[in-house]
């Protein structure tokens, strides 16, 4: 099992030792996409609705807006005994699945979405794990292969290893802004066919840790490839609201699939995932999420529901939070002005920080950073001198792990080595979130710069 | 994968057909331990604290009591950025794990509990699945065997089947009020050794679906057996607050283990589970829970934390709810009087309904029901005439499934057939919750009685 990116920070703190004086006053956890922990404020409307659902006496309070009360009443009506404390259907509350379906239809310009294909989940991870569990089977050469991007988000390698499936790597093209190239998919698939049965293709768009936003053309190519090779598509789209670069736009796999015509949308199996944790809400702690699964064989669907029913239901306050993500205030509603102000403030800030981070990294000698088109991470490539590589080897550490440990020890900045996500042999990276407030982020980037220059000098 | 007890209700509703007129006006879901859905009111204090954590503006509101605000502030201080929206450590928020440890110490008369051994979980099911995942290994004859009571709660059989472990049944003694007999444990273990490697012993106390409360002597015997046979003990103690019968008392495995002396408490590995879902709170939807694991080998502990980190963290509002379960108002605090009134009202009502249910079932010819000493279910044994058994066979149904389907079709009452939990060959049971309000429960029991008498007549 590969540890999650967050697990790395604990490892770091252990590595730091207790009571030893360090040349910094504060550890900055830039290792995990945990917005509120970095000072981002919750969206008021979302919290108002969840508080109203939690303690319905507040429905009589004049200090809560009517549109929030309306949402809360609707959610409570979907709960047994009108209580967040009741179990819901394993698939989630009906009216919230309806809201998710409407959201998808609006997002995708009217492409129909069926609430029956929506499953509310305990964060996106839970959905991804469940789908993989259902799809993986076979032994030896017939064992299911799961294609994942390299670099990847470590949930995938962890789930694949836990389920004893075969991880099939396809490499994103760093020289081309981490684009996904179908020739590379084909290479990976053909090689994998010799030792397993590749059945699943995972896509992360916008990318984590790489931050690229896929073009419409690229998505069409991937869908055609999946159709041709009969691959089940998993589209991890949790950063769908996090797109910053000019000229970039989020296209859902579902929408493009539909627009490619019935031969495609009647045949390609697709699961796509969303979450309350990212976007402009950053509500990681609620463990809310949904997946939409299309063209799933009815028998497999029965198995999926059975599997999900073992964990009874997703947390109900997370379901409520998900409802507000897909059903926020609309123009004309009392809370709209404040909502849109808060939303835009978060997203504009992230866009500013994405640009700032790219620019500052690219000013450091021996560092190259692709544009952060979306998501909330930078994944710069770093030059590590051969003397440092040797010293890392002497410490039985990956060179980028050695680099990140040194960075932490000298600056208090916690980032995740590229080897935790996978990277081309001989290249080194780290992942850093852009979540700290702008002023703090600037200081942090300056510190990384100073550290890197000294590091290059030391090991020259 | 065996469906959960709740899954059965959906199967029923499908079985009922849509639009066909039925001889009842309402379906009564007595199939699942879902207290709020059956009309039980949440504990005010718990919801106040969770609402305050959700929307901290309320900390300035004069309509919330100070003791609730104090709890909320403490929980928020344990959260990154003081927000329920941040990820927590995979093991859960530190100060809540401290509160859990203090609770266990108070409950167990001072037996020490270490917060480091406490893991907050997504309901008890999540903890049970995680521990089983860590403990199961091997192939063929060396495959891990997991001993579970029959009748059992279907989470166990589902998890065992999902993990490809070997289910080793030991039978509870129905003639002796569903007691656990160590001779039967020994029989099951010895037989299992021929085809697997039995390493884990699961206990449910108070029992689900059987409602027995284990005596101190019985627990001592089980612990001695586990020590002798080097079995890992899983103690499912989620009904620890649900004890009704005079002369019965809940004893935790941890406490008895400690009192048996260092030879036992330094050696026996034990995981025990608790939850927000049962007790007097009935907060199933929050998916809150904890497990305490003692004597776990440090390497295995490392694996457990790694495994838990894949799902990032348990839902934070569930963690907050768990905190109030273990840290409720105490005498002298503003909310104490209301809290204790609400708590006792729920528990006294359940005790009344436990007795009522036992008495009414035992008045029905061909039905025998053991005392409901604890938990929240009756599991009566029902006589099914051989003519009915034949008709069930013709429908390719288990006889008790046939019985429960008929009960549902004729009365609208949804209960779960004993075959969903396991029972001795040739005996038939069903599980019914005692959660409906007293007046409704009386009507329900009268309906079951009328149905049963007519059923006996029809198939005489």
From TrEMBL, chains A, B:
Transmembrane segments: none annotated. It catalyses: L-alanine + 2-oxoglutarate = pyruvate + L-glutamate. Residues 48-447 form the Aminotransferase class I/classII large domain. GO terms for molecular function: L-alanine:2-oxoglutarate aminotransferase activity; pyridoxal phosphate binding. Keywords: Aminotransferase, Pyridoxal phosphate, Transferase. GO terms for cellular component: cytoplasm. Gene3D superfamilies: 1.10.287.1970, Aspartate Aminotransferase, domain 1, Type I PLP-dependent aspartate aminotransferase-like (Major domain). GO terms for biological process: L-alanine catabolic process. Its EC number is 2.6.1.2. Pathway: Amino-acid degradation; L-alanine degradation via transaminase pathway; pyruvate from L-alanine: step 1/1. Belongs to the class-I pyridoxal-phosphate-dependent aminotransferase family. Alanine aminotransferase subfamily. Catalyzes the reversible transamination between alanine and 2-oxoglutarate to form pyruvate and glutamate. This is alanine transaminase. It comes from Cyanistes caeruleus (Eurasian blue tit).
